[in-house]
Amino acid sequence: MRPSGRDLSELRPVSIETGVTKHAEGSCLIRMGDTHVLCTATIEDRVPPFIKGSGLGWVTAEYGMLPRSTNTRMRREAATGKQGGRTVEIQRLIGRALRAGVDRVALGERQITVDCDVIQADGGTRCASITGGWVALRLAVNKLMKAGAVLSDPLIDPVAAVSCGIYAGQPVLDLDYPEDSEAGVDGNFIITGSGRLVEVQMSAEGSTFTRAQMTELLDLAEKGTQQLVAAQKAATE
């Protein structure tokens, strides 16, 4: 039995509320159970120096956790003068994931920055950030298309992410914090709407796993991300 009472292959309740901020070109608040992430997308008519003049667009991301997103207060990273290694790793992951679904030629020489701010954390914050980040990106690109700033849709395939793991000897979908903290194996799966893998992060957290178990987790992740892609489409149509 999972602590939440969910079936092994059941996602936490998912909701995606769009248009939650006034100024951002695209925004949403994604809730996956008790993990809540505010995602905003900002369009700028500039690109990083390393692609300037190439005609290619760029999608990047920033990630952060609010001080009381967890059960005890964390210091703001700004107070320490630098981002932690975990933060840097996660925001690079989000950027890579979102770019996998983008035709950068069609986007044109502009940058879209997706900011993911964790309001409340209960496991799976990076996965929720990717899933919600895509919605914010979709809404921002819709504005570009409506304004005639792009000739064709630069978003070629939705991108969603979900965690899976081995908890109490069983493969489970969408780990919350009680499961994540006790899981023998933990993995994050980023998959496109057409079922193509973008990135898989898997590690043994106390017990090793077999190839057959990895396949079971991948099967769960495919099921979960398809449900998340459906939620993304419902939120943006």
UniProtKB/TrEMBL annotation:
Keywords: Nucleotidyltransferase, RNA-binding, rRNA processing, Transferase, tRNA processing, tRNA-binding. Residues 10-140, 157-224 form the Exoribonuclease phosphorolytic domain. Pfam families: RNase_PH, RNase_PH_C. The keyword Transferase applies. GO terms for biological process: rRNA 3'-end processing; rRNA catabolic process; tRNA processing. InterPro entries: ExoRNase_PH_dom1, ExoRNase_PH_dom2, ExoRNase_PH_dom2_sf, PNPase/RNase_PH_dom_sf, Ribosomal_Su5_D2-typ_SF, RNase_PH, RNase_PH_bac-type, RNase_PH_CS. Its EC number is 2.7.7.56. Phosphate binds at R86, G124, T125, R126. One of its GO terms (molecular function) is tRNA nucleotidyltransferase activity. It catalyses: tRNA(n+1) + phosphate = tRNA(n) + a ribonucleoside 5'-diphosphate. The keyword Lipid metabolism does not apply. Phosphorolytic 3'-5' exoribonuclease that plays an important role in tRNA 3'-end maturation. Removes nucleotide residues following the 3'-CCA terminus of tRNAs; can also add nucleotides to the ends of RNA molecules by using nucleoside diphosphates as substrates, but this may not be physiologically important. Probably plays a role in initiation of 16S rRNA degradation (leading to ribosome degradation) during starvation. NCBIfam families: RNasePH. Homohexameric ring arranged as a trimer of dimers. Belongs to the RNase PH family. This is Ribonuclease PH. It comes from Pseudodonghicola xiamenensis. The gene is rph.
